[in-house]
């Protein structure tokens, strides 16, 4: 079988397969928006998750802090850029 070799055909963006994110990073569309995760529900690797989403959206940055809200200790994630 012969294959035609071509040049200068743009590659379409990759389609990311996998499960949907458990946390609403995509929904943080404006700087200053945030969401709260109780520590009982927070994964140990949440820092890695904020780093991942900063790579997915290079125009966005995220920060997290341990806070207590309504007597519940948890992690709040903010969009900072």
Describe this structure in words.
- The protein has 81 residues and is of the alpha+beta class.
- It has a domain at 29-79.
- 14% of the residues lie in helices and 26% in strands.
- The protein contains 1 helix and 3 strands, in the order βαββ.
- The chain has one helix spanning 46-56; strands at 34-38, 62-69, 72-79.
- Strands 1-3-2 form a 3-stranded antiparallel β-sheet, with helices on one face.
- Strand 2 (62-69) and strand 3 form a beta hairpin.
- The N and C termini lie far apart (52 Å).
- The mean pLDDT is 86.
Features:
81 residues, 1 helix
Rg estimate, integer Å: 19 Å
What is the strand content?
A: 25-35%
How far apart are the first and last residues' alpha carbons, in Å?
52 Å
Strands side by side in the biggest sheet: 1-3-2
What spatial form do the alpha-carbon principal axes imply? elongated
**Succession of helices and strands:** EHEE
Oligomer: single chain
Which structural class is indicated by helix and strand composition?
A: alpha+beta
Q: Count of DSSP helices?
A: 1
**Could you tell me the number of beta strands?**
3
In short:
This protein is α+β, with helices and mostly antiparallel strands. It is 14% helix and 26% strand. A 3-stranded antiparallel beta sheet has the order 1-3-2, covered by helices on one side.
List the helices and strands and how they pair.
Blueprint: E1 34-38, H1 46-56, E2 62-69, E3 72-79
Antiparallel strand pairs: 1-3, 2-3
